[in-house]
Structure formats: C-alpha cells, structure tokens
Amino acid sequence: MITVSYYVACSLDGYIAAADGSVDWLSDFHSEGEDFGYAEFFESVDAMVMGSATYEQVLGFGDWPYGEKPCWVMSQRPIQAVRPEIAITGLGPAEILAEIEDHHLTRAWLVGGARAAGAFRAYGLIDEYLITVLPILLGDGVPLFVDEGPLLKLQLVKNGSVGKGAVTLHYCRSEDG
Q1: What is the CATH topology of the domain spanning 3-173?
Q2: Would you kindly state where each structural domain of the chain is located, as residue ranges?
Q3: Can you tell me whether residue 26 is helix, strand or coil?
Q4: What tens-digit pLDDT sequence spans the chain (177 residues)?
Q5: Which of 45, 71, 79, 111 could form a disulfide with 50, with the two C-beta atoms 3.0–4.6 Å apart?
Q6: Element (H, E) at 118
Q7: How many whole angstroms separate alpha carbon 87 and alpha carbon 27?
Q8: For residues 36 and 27, what is the distance between their CA atoms, to the nearest angstrom?
C-alpha cells in the first residue's frame, strides 16, 4: 500500500504561493544549515505527484531538483515532460496511485499545488500532512487546498519549532474519522 504525504510550506494565513503563483517569499526563510527537514523527508519518498502549475514553476528554477525519482504531473492541458522519469497525465488521483503501486513504489510526495492537493484530499487519499508554517502573512495567494472536501479529522503526530520562527506540523488521518 502506498503512503501519500503532503509536504509543503505555507504562510501563517494558509497560502503556499503568492497571488501570482510565485514563491519568492520563501527565500526570506532560507538559511545555511536549516532545511526544515527537507533532506530527510526527500530521502524517504520514492515517487512524486504535482500539478502542472507547480511543475512549470519548478522548471523555472533551473535544473530538475528531484533527480531520477519518478514524478506524475497532473494536467488537463498539453505540456512536455522534460525528463524520462516524468509522466504527464490526465488521470485522477486514484488512478495515479494505482500506477505508482504498479511500479512497486511505497511513498509518494504530493508536492503541490493546491488543486492537486485538493483533488487528493477530496478522495481521502492523503495519509499524512507535513506542513511548515512560516511567520509571514501574505494576505492573498494560492491556498493550501483548492476545492472543498469532506470533514477530515487529523491526529497530531509531531510538532516543533525550527529556524526563523517557523513551526513544523505533522498530522495523520485520525482513526475516528
């Protein structure tokens, strides 16, 4: 069975990107020696899923930062895969997870964005939420999730304070709903 982890940074007011989709505001929180647990988390995943806007944004950063780990990009429009391990797909969340399981992979990182996360959430397919809340108010932007979903109770697994006033929150779905 595959585990889906939504690992993301957000502003205190719940946005993962500015209104124009940019994430430039995140650079204020980069510091030498502090990766907010990213390296350890990245090592633990063997597949990635992201939306097309996130994919195009990542391409704009330069070199593909995810090495040869397989990546499924959810898109309803034609876009190009720039590497052989990237699959552009119009499939829904459950079908993507079936493909990931067919590759004998066990942990997928739901990289973003909000529509992809919302689609997975709507079907109850996110197993854990690893959210780093940064001490900034954007006032507007791309929310943590787009689209409404059912009520979902979560259980806090771990929390902690990290560099520059950020807080990490690790939640899993609650056993009682």
Answers
A1: Dihydrofolate Reductase, subunit A (3.40.430)
A2: 3-173
A3: helix
A4: 899 999 999 999 999 999 998 999 998 888 777 778 899 999 999 999 999 999 999 999 889 999 999 999 999 999 999 999 999 999 999 999 999 999 999 999 999 889 999 999 999 999 999 999 999 999 999 999 887 778 889 999 999 998 789 999 999 988 765
A5: 111
A6: helix 114-122
A7: 29
A8: 13
